[in-house]
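Why does residue order matter? Because the sequence determines the fold. Keep that principle in mind as you read this record.
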Amino acid sequence: SKLRHEVRQSATFRIDNASYIHLKNLKIDGAQNGVLIVGQQAHHNQVEKCDIVNGQRRVLIAKGAHDNLITRNNLHMVLLSRYRPMAWYDAWRLDHTRVGEENYPYIVAQHYYEAYKHEIGVDTSAPQDDTGVFLLAAGGNNDISHNEIHDTLAGVFGDAIGDVRIHDNYFHHISGTSVGRGHGQENDNGYVYGNNFINVHIALRYNPNSEQEARENLWFYDNLVYNPLGLGVGIYPTMENDYDTSQTRLFFYHNTIVGVGNDDLDRISENNEIVFVNNLYYRSRLSFWASPFAHIDYNWFGTLNRIDQVETRFGKNNIEADGSIPFTPGAFDDDRAPFVVNADSSARGAGLDLSEPFTIDGVNYEALPGVPSGYSHDMGIISR
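Structure:
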């Protein structure tokens, strides 16, 4: 099977059913797996402050490994071209007299995606691809945090990845998916929060790919997505009617999405329960498929290219502020301060208080994770 084949492959450090091992301040270059953590007895291991470069997967967590911490690492590729991976989707729309260069850098970025996805790997849900951290049939409570992950095909990806927290990472110059989640195990909980996604092809993709019924919860909140040239995709759930995802719940809240080419929610199954609330979209393009179980309300949309197919689900508390500028972001240096909304913005205090039980479209929900008690419920990322 794919899993048995995968865990036989080489690694610089293979932690096989071992626990409480701490790898720190190491440089690993060119290994097929920089660190492989495998087995149900592989738990409470830590990979910290390592520079892991090239190879196929910088870190692979597999076969029931649980409660491991991957933190404060530099996980990346070093490529031969002077052109880097980056957001490239919809590059044909750019006004190149404004950009000051031709299509070639975006063609190279797309080539990285095509080559690694289709020639080196199988697809972005397969462990053969180039990935910063890959989880494959992992156990629960793995934590991937405070890493810089860049110049890769994929950032953090996995299938059947168990309960996981992916937070406070800095993803940039990624030609594929920054955070991707395939088909989960029953009652999995995924938390993706506090991340910065800068100049990436796709920030988040949720893509169940099994005929088994999915029963998962995914919370995606307090994330910043910023693509300076208006390319790429912020949120891309792919849940069509081929698979039963009726028991899966997705919560998207308090995210700030700036300059993405197309957030494509068109491929959502009609029986999916989705809560999309307290988000801020600016200079971005958005489309929805009108799932009867989607709740799209209390969001701020400024200078939005389009919102379509949402007449029945587009809540009355959304703010369409075309022409309004909520902030003036400068050059990004991993500092969120320029993306906190201005004091006079209509996004201030206009959201729903998610730190307490709330009701949206007549449906009652418990308080959502990660929102401080008494928070002023501004739309967009949470002020810290």
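The longest strand covers residues 170-181.
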